[in-house]
Amino acid sequence: MEQFDYSAWSVYTGPSALKTIINDPSCPWVVGQWNGINANTTAAEIKKDIDYRIEIVMDYFAQMIPHYKTYNRHFVIPEFFFHCVEGPYPYVKIEEDMYPFEYIVATIKKAFKNVVPDDNNYYTLIIGSTLTSNIEDYEVFLSSSKVLARQAALNEILPHDIHTLFKAHSNHNWARSLVFDMSMSDELQVLNDFMKSARANPLCTVRNRGAFFHLNQTMMEDVEVFLYEKQNESTVDLTMGVFDANGQITTNGMITEWLGNYPSYSILSGDKHTSPQSTYARFTPSFIGNNDIGVEICLDHRLQRLRRTVDMCTLNGAAANNYPLFKQFIPSGGMQILDYSVAVTRNAYIFNADGCDKIYKSYTDPNSVILDGKAGKFKGITCGVYNQSIQSKWTGRDTQTYYSHSQLASTTNESQIGGFDNAKGLNNVMATTYNGTTAAPYNQRTDSFSPTIAITTAISENVFALNEGEIHYYEPM
Q1: How sure is the predictor about 185, in pLDDT bands with cuts at 50, 70 and 90?
Q2: What angle (nearest 5°) sits at the alpha carbon of residue 14, between those of residues 397 and 248?
Q3: Cα angle vertex 190, ends 186, 191, to 5°?
Q4: Which of 23, 39, 126, 343 has the fewest CB atoms found within 10 Å of its own CB?
């Protein structure tokens, strides 16, 4: 039997009522509304939203514990799990001088220690990600002259019949976008140019961070916590707002894509934690030897963040040695495991917990979705990676269709990756995840798990677009 258990909370974590902002299926910019239970952005209301999300995380993690079989037990939730109605939590002190992200980490750390049994097993909880901003008073900020000017400029470039078109065009599934199509329509070209300018001149800062909690009650005095932060912002990490009754785009109280941007983040010295304050993607928990764990959020995986730093070392000027990973985790909102981004050593696992999208056999082909878009289990090659997976399909309260999924893969005994050559990009040596042929692939380690839906979840409060979820458990056989 394998030495690891992997479980993921499969639940849709993105905004609801999604549509592209213009009637163009290739448009990467979406309108939609975030869900949450905060009535406003006072400290008390933000705390209420956060506390409920923490409560349900710990509840379902506790329910999973009796299912585990091995002594290395993992529970992973998707990107965007922690957000409010406005998207990012505001910069308000919640309790004891702690801002939202610090409060989430401190509260979960305490709850995690109380839930984990003293059974000499290793428990890992990865909380996806938390959206926060540097703005304290959203009402004042969103009504400021600089925001209203940018909003007016956006409305000016949108088609004048946009409201009619918006009502007519279809719902839009969450889709990650990185590059702009050179054969785009004139309308989309103008919109993309506007967004490039807005991104270059952000009016506020948004951060997308998560935390890795690790504990063995018998061996460790306290919970180890490692923070990680997303480096690359996609076109749908926030929404473009919503249309009002007059057909004008409005923030509807949200921090939007045309207002904020992620802070600059460099991995030129490697991506390894060098202090407790680090928010890099690599770290070494206790009792795993001289091994690195890696967590990259969504688009960071597509951009090969962890793969790029493999073999960076102090001898060559890095701040710390960046070994091929022992385990690679991808909490995401519209991403899956990609062959050119696998950064683990041989005989090592990669695990993906996604809260926003289907699984595609070819990541750039929207017509290659597995299982014809139905919910279910799948074993085979997707995006060059031999994996086992479970795809979830939901109907939201707005009657729109939503997806989430999980994936588990392992490299083979023959797999080898070395230092990354930026000039080669996607053509660097890739890890090997299967033996045999593409028609008949196999991997004893990947095949040694049985994916199952261990728990069907029900969320009483409307913190997401739907109230249903399920815990995917990759049961070692």
Answers
A1: confident
A2: 80
A3: 115
A4: 39
Alpha-carbon torsion (270, 276, 278, 284), positive or negative: positive
- In the chain, the amino acid numbered 433 is T
Least confident range of 159-163, 177-181, 268-272: 177-181
Report the alpha-carbon distance of residue 38 to residue 19 in Å, rounded.
24
- Under a CB-based contact definition with an 8 Å cutoff, are residues 325 and 362 in contact? no
pTM: 0.96
Answer positive or negative: Cα dihedral of 390, 391, 393, 394. Answer: positive
pLDDT at position 184: 74
Q: The tokens 């008390």 sit on which residue?
A: 44
255 conformational bin, left if phi > 0, alpha if psi -120 to 50, beta if neither? beta
Query: Measured between alpha carbons, how far is 392 from 452 in angstroms, rounded to an integer?
Result: 12
**Exposure letters 22-52 (e unless 16+ CB within 10 A, then b):** bbbeebbbbbbbbbbbbeebeeebbbbbbeb
Radius of gyration of the chain (CA): 22
User: What CA–CA distance (Å, rounded) separates 193 from 448?
Assistant: 49
In degrees, rounded to 5, the angle at the alpha carbon of residue 50 between the alpha carbons of residues 123 and 244 is: 135
Burial 78-116 (b: 16+ CB within 10 A, else e): bbbbbbbbbbbbbbbebeeeebbbbbbbebbbebbeebb
Task: Single out the residue of 92, 106, 86 nearest to residue 134, CA to CA.
Answer: 92
Do the Cβ atoms of 168 and 224 come closer than 8 Å? no
| Count, residues in the chain | 477
* 163 vs 147: CA distance, rounded Å: 21
Looking from the CA of 4 toward its CB, the CA atoms found within 13 Å total 21
Neighbour count for residue 344 (Cβ, 10 Å)? 26
Helices (H) and strands (E) in the chain, counts: 9, 22
